[in-house]
Amino acid sequence: MKEIQLFLVPEPGKKPEFLATVIPIDPAPIALKQWQTLPSKIVLEAYTRDAWAWKPNSKLQAMSVKSTDGRNKLPGFVGYLKQRQKSAYGRFPTRGVLIVSYIQSSKETDRMDCTITMDFADLPNCELKPMPAAAQQQQQAAAIRPSLATATVGKKTGLLGKLVSGAQRTQQSMLATAKSNVQPIPTASINDNQVTNSDTAIAASNASEALTRTAQQVLAEFRESMQQRMLDFELAPDECTRIELSLPEYIAGLNDDEKPRVTMDVLKYMVYEAAEEVDEEWIAYKEPSEFMDECVITVYKEGAAPPEVLEETNRAELPEEVRGQERAIAQERQRQLERQQMQQQKFTQNQAHKQHISDEADELEALNTHKRDRRTIEDYERERRAR
Predict the structure, then answer these.
(1) Which of these, 304, 314, 259, 252, lies nearest to 282 by C-alpha position?
(2) CA 229 vs CA 11, 62, 217, 307, 382: distances in Å
């Protein structure tokens, strides 16, 4: 039965590492026929949480595989997928994809469930694109199996077995040294040209992929990276983490029609959403910034946020109606305070005015208020007639 070597890219941009050599377990005739058409090496290039990778689909061929190399790496790999709730996938020519979902039907540790399709266009809402031939060759060339290529299930034991194993390791070292000392043959210039042409083709394919990126792909990658970062933060002992966002970094390579779809508000919302998905008690706080296209968001675990951050967050979470009521109440209190101040000022002015009048009245003296009338009756009558 055909054996397939699985390689895994540990991080984006890193070289693939050997994972396991697998064969199917009791496959159906259709599944076995499809298995025989697969390439001998498949690289699991990335992870995803999209529904097309874990939801059941009648167009996917499901099968179980087991490792034959004796390294027992599959249980740890499957456990990692379950813990992160992610699915790993690897494309192969021309439009095929192998998917290892975090949902495993079997509880046995020596087997792994996977699904295969020869055309990922059958997967709903799947945005994968065919891998360029040059990139496929580069990925396959980077997938170098470790030096113990002749790994066996049962190790040699005993004194004789140790001597034989030591002799094999010595022979492998001598062969590697001899290969490194071989002088280049005259046709090296042709090989160099071939390598240069291959590198140029790979660079051109990568450049074409960069130019054909869409805003949806950028946002999907950003969302996946934030989810991964929040899951790592959950396992870390740190109480807070800082996420620096720079909009020009994410819109680089997009055309003018796609750039408006990637905004700072969308990126901030994805960070808040990723933090809330991991733990609803976490607090994501946007720190003040002087620039519109750059910001820093600090995520605090439960109970780690300082009081000023809690106050600012609670104020920001209030509905618009409640904030309007609070503004109206504050304005009414201000008006009442101003009214009281005016009344107090008027009362003070009145008291000062009354005091001034009282002081002026005390300074006046009334004269001749009790003077005796010394006129005679004849004088009085004379004066009255004269009027």
Answers:
(1) 304
(2) 13, 31, 18, 25, 121
- How far is CA 362 from its chain centroid? 85
The tokens describing 9, both together, are 């890219």
Q: Which residues contact 275 (CB under 8 A, 6 or more apart)?
A: 230, 282, 284, 299
Backbone angles phi, psi at 90, to 5 degrees: -145, 125
Side-chain-facing half-sphere of 179: CA atoms under 13 Å: 6
What is the Cβ-side half-sphere exposure of residue 140, based on CA atoms within 13 angstroms? 15
In terms of Cβ atoms closer than 10 Å to its own Cβ (0-12, 13-18, 19+), residue 198 is: middle
How many residues in total does the chain contain? 387
Whole-number Å distance between alpha carbons of 283 and 311: 12
Please name the helix (run of DSSP H) or strand (run of DSSP E) that holds residue 216, with its range, or none.
Answer: helix 215-235
DSSP calls for 315-366: HHHS-HHHHHHHHHHHHHHHHHHHHHHHHHHHHHHHHHHHHHHHHHHHH---
Number of Cβ atoms within 10 Å of the Cβ of 79: 13
pLDDT of residue 21: 92
Question: Where are any strands of DSSP class E within 61-189?
Answer: 61-67, 87-92, 96-100, 111-117
pLDDT recorded at residue 359:
61
Greater model confidence, 251 or 209: 251
Question: 74, 84, 133, 70: which is closest to 106 by C-alpha?
Answer: 74
- Closest listed residue to residue 288, CA positions, set 311, 312, 305: 312
What pLDDT does residue 192 have?
A: 42
Task: Give the pLDDT confidence of 270-323 residue by residue, as tens digits.
Answer: 998 888 888 888 988 888 888 888 899 999 998 888 888 888 777 655 556 666
